[in-house]
Amino acid sequence: MGWIFLAVVVVAIWFVVSLYNRLVGARNGYKNAFAQIDVQLTRRYDLIPNLVETVKGYIKHERETLEAVIKARNTAVSGLKAAAANPGDAAAMTALSGAENQLGGALGRLFALAEAYPDLKANQNMMQLSEELTSTENKVAFARQAYNDSVMGYNNRREMFPGSVIANSFNFEAAALLEIENVANRAAPKVSFG
Fold it and tell me: What is the SS3 assignment for 127?
């Protein structure tokens, strides 16, 4: 009888450890997926000052638009840092989402304004920067999808029985998706200079 009881205890411990390790693996998976978003958004944020400098020479009297882009970029950088410090945190994801919406709107106004300047539209640097920005937007969208898929997998493991028992016992918090609230901004901005 003693051996059977010992075997049941060992199997139960192994089962708990296995569930715990799967939750840790899923949590690390969504954190890694967020790191990919971090890389792409950082690249995007690094391109924006170059874009503003290119535009600045052509539309000097449109200072408000340029300042709005820089301000929105700085807010987005801060939001990204906060989210990177705690991927999955609902408040951080909401702040980052809001900052991204603000930046997308500011960039949209900048590109709309640039359409009125034929020399700027034809500028090789402007065309290259806008192409790189569009490419980066696509990479951000893919990285966001991978992150949201990882968060969903983690949350499913966390909420389904018997994982929910282990998750609640060891304080595995729910992770938040990175969503863009403005449906118009769900797609990468379309940039056309010709």
Answer: helix
Contact criterion met (CB below 8 Å) for 147 and 97:
no
Q: How far apart are CA 37 and CA 145, in angstroms?
A: 10
What's the CA gap between 112 and 120, in Å, rounded?
12
* 100 closest CA partner among 38, 53, 49, 35: 38
DSSP E strands in the chain: the ranges are none
By the 8 A CB rule, do 178 and 144 touch?
Answer: yes
Buried b or exposed e, range 54-70, using 16+ CB within 10 angstroms: bbeebbeebeebbebbe
State both tokens at 189: 């901005």
Tell me if 178 sits within 8 A of 75, measured CB to CB: no
Structure tokens at 177: 């998706």
Which structure tokens are listed for 161? Answer: 């029985």
pLDDT, tens only, 143-168: 999 999 999 999 999 999 999 999 99
* Interatomic CA distance for residues 40 and 120, integer angstroms: 26
Digit-coded pLDDT (tens) for 28-77: 999 999 999 999 999 999 999 988 888 887 777 778 888 999 999 999 99
Angstrom distances, CA of residue 31 to CA of 39, 99, 144, 167: 13, 20, 12, 17
- Tokens 């929105």 belong to residue: 72
